[in-house]
Amino acid sequence: MTDPNWTVPDDAYAALGDETRLEILFELADHYEAAWSAGWLSFSKLCDRVGVDDTSRFNYHLQKLQDEFIVKENEQYRPTIAALYVVTAIRSGTYDGETAVCESVTDERCPHCDQPMVARHDEHLLLLACPDHGTTLGYPVPPVAASHQSLETLVELALRRHAADIESIRRGVCPYCWGPATISFPRETIPELYLQLETVYATVACEACWMSYPVPIPSLLGSVPAVIALYDDHDLTPLAMQRGSTALSRVSEVELLENGTAEITISLDETGLAVVIDGDGTVERCQRIG
Ligand SMILES: [Zn+2]
Ligand SMILES: [Zn+2]
Predict the structure, then answer these.
(1) Ion ligand 1 — residues with CB under 5 Å?
(2) 208 CA distance to ligand 2 centroid (A)?
(3) 101-128 burial by CB neighbour count: b if 16+ within 10 A, else e?
(4) In this protein, which residues make up the domain named DUF7351 (predicted)?
């Protein structure tokens, strides 16, 4: 849910709606490495590199980009982090080379039918799914990734990034835009394309950008030290909290308590943990069982 205070300023739309201005950002991004030793580009050098003859016209374009996307310092122009993100987003999203593997069967089994889960990279999204019961992971991965990495590596990296995202969200920071992120539960409905697990879901969302998705409540606990220790006692790595039969969402039971908190009981063999989190995901209590 986007708060009106966090909408994109009209200037930003206008600034980027022009080919020359995008080229200026691309030139500055390409100069990034050289800038460490040679500094950023002067007006004339930048104008030369973009290939514009009319200097007053070029100045007009620079003005449009200034402050939001370009900062002028000591007669040199450097890109802001927002400008570099724009370049990254366009380049990674429009890769037109050959993409290697697109789909492969994994060792992971569907909890409903026991058939192998299939990993698929679908241009902009990496999916791990049971063909009959739905998706257990859907993570944005741009087309360029599949050109130089195996699908197996991409799945592992997506899971690690997803875990880091949840950690960031639990600290109240959106992993995509660094705006304010929130956790709320219970979530009433889960999209049909999701692999439905017998657990209670939360919604994680950002007040500033598009981010919003359901997460099984137990999966919020992957970075809690006592949970990491419990898995470590069973020689299980943090990745085991996210996938397969040892996934937190599969070995935990969730009980919603009347004061708005949730009690998550994690059971691994004979041992376990009871963790109570409050409405925004903060751990209130954590107790070893067995
Ligand atoms: Zn299935
Ligand atoms: Zn955000």
Answers:
(1) 110, 112-113, 130, 132-133
(2) 5
(3) eeeeeeebebbeeeeebbbbbeeeebbb
(4) 107-283
